[in-house]
Automatic annotation (TrEMBL):
Name of the protein: Dual OB-containing domain-containing protein
Species this protein is from: Pseudomonas syringae pv. viburni
Any one Pfam family match given in the protein's UniProt record, by short name: DuOB
InterPro entries registered for this protein in UniProt: DuOB_dom
Domain Dual OB-containing: 9-83
Amino acid sequence: MVQPDGGLLTVTVAKERDDKTKIRLHFRYNRVKYALTTTDIWSQDYFRGCGIGEYELENIQAMTISLGEPFANGNTTKIVAEIFRG
């Protein structure tokens, strides 16, 4: 579990490859910038409903970071599995 610096996330909803809508969570943790996708059900549903754009989400208590499914070459990506809001 991690807590983003300042308890703040910037969320972007955008069309990416294959015209799929992708939700990315932008945050800092230990002064390092991250932009990760999420499998958190609440944020997927909520931000897809908001439409394409950039949004702020405050009072984040913690997030669970997980590794995604491995690619054919064995590499994996980090994802935000769950967001705990205050």
